[in-house]
Each structure stands twice: as C-alpha cells, then as structure tokens.
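Sample pair:
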Amino acid sequence: MFFQLSQQAPKTAQLGSTDSTDGNLNELHVTVRCCSHLQSRASHLQPHPYVVYKFSDFADHDTAIIPSSSDPQFDDHMCFPVPMNMDLDRYLKSESLSFYVFDDSDTQEDIYIGKVNVPLISLAHDRCISDTKEISPEVEHTPEIEINMPTVSHIPEVSQESSVDKVKENTEKVQQGKDDDVSLLSEGQLAERTLTSSEDETEITEELEPEDEEDRSASDSDECIIPGRIAKSIKQPSEKIRIEIIALSLNDSPVTADDTIQRLFIECRFYSLPAEETPVSLPKPKSGQWVYYNYSNVIYVDKENNQAKRDILKAILLKQEMPNRSIRFTVVSDPPEDEQDLECEDVGIANVDLADMFREGRDIIEQSIDVLDARADGGGIGKLRVTVEALHALRSVYEQYRDDLEA
C-alpha cells in the first residue's frame, strides 16, 4: 500500500481577537493522493477503497470511494484553518494524525484494511517529517510506510511581544519563502526506499512542489476546500481509553493442535464493564502466522459524563484489589457454522495493567503481549498485538485526586 500525502506551506492572516487568541490564523493543507497494492479481506476481489482521517476537533474527513481498485488515485485536498496559539503548539507536540483505509464493499463497517499514524510533533518545531513505519495488513510480509511532511507552521513562543509583532514576523517569513526543511529519520532507517524496491513495501510520502508565493496563493484559493468553521482552539486529547486489537499469533500448543478449534474472535473487558468483542471471527492461524482483526474501541472517562468509570481509574491508581488486572483480552473459540449447538469457549487470556502503564509513563502502542492458556496450565500459547492508550486519562485522574492518592 502506498500513500502519497502533501501539505503546502501555510498562509498567515491577521484576524480580530474574537477569531484567534493570538490574532494569527494558519492553514493546514492535507492532500491524499493515492494508494497502491491494497488488498480486500476477500482476497479474490478488488476493494472499493476510501481514506478517513480526523484533524483536531474538525469533523472526520472521507475521500471519495474509488470502485474496484487496488491502486486508487484520490487526489483529495483539504484545508484546515487553525489559530496560531499555544494550544496548537501543545496539540502538535502530543498528537498524531491517523489515516484509515476502508473497503466500502466490506460488510463489517468497523474493520479497516490499513492504517498509519503520523506524529505531528516535528511540525511544532518547523521541521520536515521523514519516517518509516510498519502497518499491519493481512499479508505474509509486513510492509512499511514512508512518511515525508514539510513544515506546517511557525508556533509562537510564549513571550511579552504583542500579537501585532508576532503576526508581522510570521507574515515576513511566509513572504520570504526561504525556510529550509530538515529531515527526521526513524531509528533503523539506513537508506532511502522507493516504491520499486519491493512490491510488499508500503510507503507514505509527502511533497511540497516549489512555486513562487503569488502562484501558490492563487492555487490555494482555487483548490482548497475549507471547512465551514475555524477551530478557535485546539482541543487537548480527550479523556478516554482507546483499545485496539490488531492481530493474533499462536505458537505450538494444545490450541493449535485442537481440530475442534477452527475460528477465533477476541473479547476485551475493562474491569466490570460489559465486554466488547471483534465483530468477526477469523480462521485459527497456523503456528507462527498472524491473523489481523484491526478493531478499535473507545471508553470515555471524562468527569462530566463518565464519573463512575473515572472512579475505576482512581481505584487502579490507589492499587486497590482489582480483578482482571484492569484490562483483559480473551481469545474465544467460535463454533463452526454446522455446529452452532456448541458454545463459545475461552481458550486464551492476555492482560494489560493500567497501574503499570501509569508508573512507566507510556502508552502501549502496537505491542505484542503474551497470551496464556485459559483451559490448562496457563502456559503461553501465543501473542496478541494491541494498542492501549490511557496515559492521558490516568494522569487526569491523578491530578484530580492527587491529595487522596498521595495520602
């Protein structure tokens, strides 16, 4: 799968104080150009792909659906007006822009066929992004995504200078058009990679075509589709727990040897809340192989509407006796269609301890955790690749109940 993204250098405009805290407006341009080597979950068919992403508190943006294409050409261009203030600075330093590729012909609406996260932190430092990441499509070889992104904006520093001075300074920078891009390479990226180097390779690239300021301003107004509102402030990461069930792999164990176990789905439970499960069961993988679910779920823990769930997080931070080590994943055997009189059976268990996550100060991102046998001696039967993002919510609860937690 090949993504090609581009962002044009933003324009700066002076607005009244009612529009932006710093009287300075910036435009973020995102263009999704194309994908290559896409595969439908029904491997004998071509997908009907489209891409979805969400920037800040703007609405989700969907590209057009390209029918029956493994190499769709989108050329989808969006423009997001954002205020030049410290909220934007904090947002860029803490968030990623996630692009999801969906297949419109897939009856399971929650399942995507590809995903990439683009961290935005380098944009807060006026630096180009060049990175190589893995995605998890349902193929034997894990492809890679290459990301290149030019600078988006100049983030104003906290100082005593007036808004007028800052607007003038940034306007002069745009007019000069001489900012240099600096590439950031991820660890392990030893050389440039191209699409022709491997058919299994997946890349994301982002380009900024050179053009003079006058031509660029004209093309911006002609091509840019601007959403109907301006984000007057960038929302900070919402207080939520995001759980993503990515893939399952089994090793040589009684589960792989049991011919009565043919299809598996994954159940996820947070404390005593109702369990969520992947909408599909997949064929049991052979030893050492991976099957991909690509399913995600969000649990909101904001104090305005979900105080009971925040109380659970408080109990976790207080290290009270908690069942299931905070979050439990269960691998469940789904009976064959011709034996529906049989019941589902738990065959494997994996756990994520949110207290450990808070103590270590990091989320679990696409990490493979041990799956233990739920039926026998509790020995390892495989790995479950998951993402659990809860650190922001845990820190929010800690700040709210700091006196109780430090007593």
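Residues 1-22, 131-136, 138-226 have pLDDT under 50 and may be disordered.
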